[in-house]
Write a structure and sequence with these properties.
- This protein is an alpha+beta fold.
- The chain folds into three domains: about 425 residues, Alpha/alpha barrel (Glycosyltransferase); about 100 residues, Golgi alpha-mannosidase II (Immunoglobulin-like), CATH 2.60.40; about 110 residues, no CATH class.
- The protein is about 35% helix and about 20% strand.
- It contains 18 helices and 21 strands.
- InterPro entries: 6-hairpin_glycosidase_sf (IPR008928), Beta-AFase-like (IPR049174), Beta-AFase-like_GH127_C (IPR049049), Beta-AFase-like_GH127_cat (IPR012878), Beta-AFase-like_GH127_middle (IPR049046).
- Pfam families: Beta-AFase-like_GH127_cat, Glyco_hydro127C, Glyco_hydro127M.
Length: about 650
């Protein structure tokens, strides 16, 4: 199997943080021994935030302890994502203590599984006879999808047959209960995820029924838009969030068949999970109709509904997309899970089409919105990633209660922290895409890789100080027995991009954002890449009303922001002049080492402080402006932050 070993100092710190801090910390949280305060992600009395109870739920379901279920219907998924993160961490570096905990969890999951393969602690504890009857909010298939993903990851890493057999038994139960056949449930889950899990299980087992079931769930969605409401009217069981069935059909992406959906609608995470599975199915089967659907939804998200940080989701109401160009900076949602889901979608699209735009968006979401979801200590997390924050407004404006000025230790809805852990731990899977005899270099990271191509392997060694430095070197040795093409990505943010092959400058021949270099069997080549990391001013489409007259600053893949700790209060009073010249400086002692941008700007001062409105024009005074990378904000206490600044 192909292997990618990331040696980057930037990502090495984060991956060490996941292994040494995040995974053990989350283990303590899941076992209710962390001794922390769990915050609600917004003002909502219905959010369970007393404890996690996730491991305890499994113990109750397994009959090991007495008790009842606590938490969301999707609480099981926190454990599954933790297990998946462990699998990837063990792939990078074996850890006996971590493996011991993982094996204990696998044993516990097996004990909690019903004899027929059904796996969900909520209904096993509160009423197994009500299973599959309230799919709008029960998250049964969602949770089982996450377990299947974790099982495949753990089996692939360790060869553990037990966890794979639990997953197959689980998937077989779903297959027995859902499908087009008479007597089966003609429906799907309220939250897409099982489709991703089934496709991953198909890839590892080759069992067509898993592929067919995933396709059924994807293509059945939207054919019967009243499905959830009809189930809810008949449902008599425990409160499985069945009230969610009253949400608009767009919330579930079942307002129309997938083939008729032209825009990204509803809950943002659901959308990108749906799209990830669709793109995987399309790449696997070559289905042109599904490929067209994927491209249509991708274009709508990226061209009309994505924030400059790679965040998606414009409103707290339904954590959802709204309409084209509705991208508010201080009331948006930009959930960490949604940015991660967008990366998953991009990764699958690269299997369909070698287009650098997918890798560009993957990079944007990774280095900005997703990375901002975790504090530098690995123990505090954002659910929502705003582009503008005033702490007092977050505290006193109910419409902004979801916009946190600092990261909480844990969240009542804790989907984001373990999702971020599994993404960072699996980052080596995002560096390259292999299509036949072509290798796409999607991400620039120090790494040593052996990639399966033809009847052998291609060795690629990357050396770079990315994302700070402007150079990368790739040593490629082709031991595959076939001619191999190396697709070197030309980032969209680099105006002047240069490539040297064997030390000689070559003319760039861009094909959808990649320059291809052929490497013959038995030969090797040294490729040198130079990026243009000039500071860039970015402007939003004028239809984005909130950003008219404003500018966002970036350098390389990183979006920058102003923070109050560097620039004082009332960031809304700062102006970046058109002729401002930036200076770049790397500070090893700040925020674990960051590149800073400084320049001279203006601050608006009122001439009269006694009047709310006046005829007097405010005065302008010179001030020093300091920008930090967006991902690093909120690590120095509670203060204001702003991405889009007046120009």
């Amino acid at each position: 199997m192909s292997s990618v070993k990331i040696t980057s100092s930037f990502w090495g710190r984060y991956r060490d943080l996941v292994r040494r801090e995040m995974i053990p910390y989350q283990w303590q949280v899941l076992n209710d021994i962390a001794g922390i305060t769990i915050e609600k992600e917004r003002d909502d009395a219905n959010i369970p935030s007393e404890k996690s109870h996730a491991i305890e739920n499994f113990k109750v379901a397994a009959g090991r302890v007495q008790g009842t279920h606590y938490g969301w219907t999707f609480q099981d998924s926190d454990v599954y994502k933790w297990l998946e993160a462990v699998a990837y961490s063990l792939r990078e570096k074996m850890d006996p203590e971590l493996e011991k905990n993982a094996l204990a969890v696998i044993d516990l999951i097996e004990a909690a599984q019903e004899p027929d393969g059904y796996l969900d602690t909520y209904f096993s504890i509160l009423g197994i006879e009500y299973r599959y009857q309230s799919l709008a909010g029960s998250h049964e298939l969602y949770c089982m999808g996450h377990f299947i993903e974790a099982a495949v990851a753990y089996y692939t890493t360790t060869g553990n047959e037990k966890v794979l057999n639990i997953a197959k038994k689980c998937a077989d139960n779903i297959d027995e209960n859902f499908g087009p056949e008479e007597g089966k449930i003609h429906g799907y889950d309220g939250h897409e995820e099982i489709e991703i899990g089934l496709l991953r299980l198909y890839h590892i087992t080759g069992e067509d029924r898993y592929l067919n079931l995933a396709k059924y769930f994807l293509t059945e969605r939207g054919k019967h838009p009243d499905f959830f409401r009809e189930q809810a009217r008949k449902y008599k069981g425990p409160n499985a969030l069945n009230w969610v069935a009253n949400a608009p059909n767009t919330y579930f992406q079942n307002h129309a068949p997938i083939s008729e959906q032209k825009t990204a609608e509803g809950h943002a995470v659901r959308v990108v999970y749906l799209c990830t599975a669709l793109a995987d199915l399309a790449a696997t089967t070559g289905d042109e109709e599904i490929i067209k659907i994927c491209r249509t939804l991708w274009d709508n998200i990226v061209d009309c509904r994505m924030f400059i940080t790679g965040g998606i989701g414009s409103t707290v109401n339904g954590e959802a997309f709204t309409l084209d160009y509705d991208l508010p900076n201080d009331t948006m949602y930009c959930e960490t899970c949604a940015a991660i889901g967008l990366m998953f979608f991009a990764r699958q699209m690269l299997r369909i089409d070698p287009n650098g735009e997918y890798a560009d968006v993957m990079e944007r979401a990774l280095y900005n919105c997703a990375l901002a979801g975790m504090a530098l200590d690995g123990k505090h997390f954002f659910y929502v990633n705003p582009l503008e924050v005033n702490p007092l407004k977050s505290k006193k404006d109910p419409a902004k209660s979801h916009v946190k000025p600092v990261r909480p230790s844990w969240l009542g809805c804790a989907c984001c922290p373990p999702n971020l852990a599994r993404m960072i731990a699996s980052l080596d899977d995002f560096v390259y895409t292999i299509n036949d005899n072509t290798i796409l270099v999607n991400q620039y990271m120090d790494s040593d890789s052996l990639l399966d191509v033809g009847d052998g392997v291609v060795l690629i060694k990357q050396t770079t100080g990315f994302p700070w430095d402007e150079q990368a070197g790739l040593y490629v040795s082709n031991n595959s027995g076939v001619d191999v093409k190396i697709g070197v990505r030309i980032p969209s943010w680099s105006e002047n991009f240069r490539i040297r092959v064997g030390g000689n400058l070559v003319e760039i021949d861009s094909k959808k954002g990649y320059h291809y270099i052929e490497v013959a069997p038995g030969s090797s080549v040294v490729i040198g890449v130079n990026f243009d990391m000039s500071v860039t001013r970015n402007y939003a489409n004028p239809h984005v009303s909130e950003d008219v007259g404003r500018v966002a600053v970036s350098r390389g893949p990183l979006i920058y922001c102003l923070e109050g700790v560097d620039n004082g209060d009332d960031l809304n009073c700062l102006i970046l002049p058109l002729n401002a010249h930036f200076e770049y400086r790397f500070d090893n002692n700040l925020l674990n080492g960051v590149g800073l941008l400084t320049t001279t700007g203006k601050r608006v001062h009122a001439r009269s402080k006694s009047s709310l409105y006046t005829k007097e024009r405010p005065s302008l005074k010179d001030v020093k402006l300091t920008f930090i990378p967006y991902y690093a904000w909120a690590n120095r206490g509670e203060n204001e932050m702003q991405v889009w600044i007046r120009e």
